[in-house]
Amino acid sequence: MDALQAARVGESSAPIWDVERLLDSIGDDPAFLAELINVFLGSTADNIGLLAAASLADVVRIAHTVKGAAANIHANNLATRAAELEMAAPSRPVSASDLEGLRSAWAEAEQVIRRYALKFADKRAG
Q1: DSSP assignment, residue 74?
Q2: What is the pLDDT of residues 44-78, one digit of tens each?
Q3: Residue 73 C-alpha from the chain's centroid
Q4: Cα–Cα distance between 69 and 34 in angstroms, integer?
Q5: Which of 57, 77, 90, 119 sits most deeply, having the most CB atoms within 10 A of its CB?
Q6: Is-above-0.70 flag for pTM?
Q7: Average pLDDT across the chain, whole number
């Protein structure tokens, strides 16, 4: 499975990461794509890492931030999981499985995006 195919694979009809849609929205700008990927991966990893010790208000804020970042880069499953957590958190206690669901969606998106980024970097170098 190549990186583009992996970006299309998901549990639902929505891909884990819709790289084609992202590329359609940003145009043919490899430097911008590389920067966007790096910023997304770094900031989202930081936010996911903060969840373990987060208060309820912080969980809602982090979920909102992750939802927006994931939606902007078209990481669909991650955006959906973050939106679900953001909406559920104010109305009921956040469970370990709620947080694990978001972490799992992040791990899945991160793997697909990093795989694509490596292949993309190899193409740019070669």
Answers
A1: T
A2: 999 999 998 999 999 999 999 999 999 999 999 99
A3: 7
A4: 15
A5: 77
A6: yes
A7: 87
Instruction: Supply 71's token pair.
Output: 């939606």
Distance CA 75, CA 108 (A): 10
- Tokens representing 67 are 């939802």
Is the pLDDT confidence value at 12 over 80? Answer: no
Residue 117 above 80 pLDDT? Answer: yes
Name the DSSP class of 45.
H
pLDDT at 109 over 50: yes
Report the alpha-carbon distance of residue 7 to residue 25 in Å, rounded. 16
Q: Calculate the CA 104 to chain-centre distance.
A: 10
Q: What is the pLDDT of residue 119?
A: 86
Determine the distance from the C-alpha atom of residue 13 to the mean position of all C-alpha atoms in its chain, rounded to a whole number.
Answer: 16
Domain regions of the chain by residue span = 3-125
Residue 38: other Cβ atoms inside 10 A: 11
Cβ distance 114 to 6 under 8 Å?
A: no
Residue with tokens 């009809």: 13
**Distance, CA of 13 to CA of 15 (rounded, Å):** 6
Location of structure tokens 């070669």: 126
